[in-house]
């Protein structure tokens, strides 16, 4: 089996994003949410901008991803199992298409972003270190 390439360009990112959404939109857990809130043709360039910015620091994404999820959450509460499933599909999709530094970053950043958005939707600190507190001074 030939070695998979790494993500290198906007075209690679677009392929990864489209493949992910095609799979996610057929998933029993996620399908309804996506169908109610997403026009795939309109969404593709936005998400390609997002992931191109995340992976290559392209600076093309200038929207508020958190607000979009807050708006969805009001209508369709997004719980941790939704995020887990999203990440499971995302990681499997990346692994089926690409391998290398940028592919690994796509999976890591998706994990971080998904967990942060989930925490924010549920009124918690977005940091993965939310349980780390400060120590009282001792004299």
UniProtKB/TrEMBL annotation:
InterPro entries assigned to the protein according to its UniProt record, in alphabetical order: Globin-like_sf, Globin/Proto
Gene3D superfamilies: Globins (1.10.490.10)
Protein name, UniProt field: Hemoglobin
Top-level division of the source organism's lineage: Bacteria
A Gene Ontology molecular function term of the record: heme binding
Sections of the chain in a coiled coil: none
């Amino acid at each position: 089996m030939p070695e998979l390439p790494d993500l290198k360009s906007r075209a690679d990112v677009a392929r990864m994003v489209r493949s992910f959404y095609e799979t996610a939109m057929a998933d029993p857990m996620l399908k309804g949410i996506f169908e109610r809130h997403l026009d795939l043709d309109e969404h593709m360039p936005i998400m390609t901008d997002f992931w191109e910015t995340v992976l290559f620091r392209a600076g093309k994404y200038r929207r508020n991803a958190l607000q979009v999820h807050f708006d969805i959450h009001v209508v369709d509460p997004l719980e941790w199992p939704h995020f887990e499933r999203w990440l499971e599909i995302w990681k499997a999709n990346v692994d089926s298409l690409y391998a290398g530094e940028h592919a690994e970053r796509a999976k890591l950043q998706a994990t971080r972003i998904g967990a942060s958005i989930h925490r924010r939707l549920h009124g918690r600190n977005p940091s993965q270190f939310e349980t780390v507190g400060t120590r009282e001074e001792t004299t």
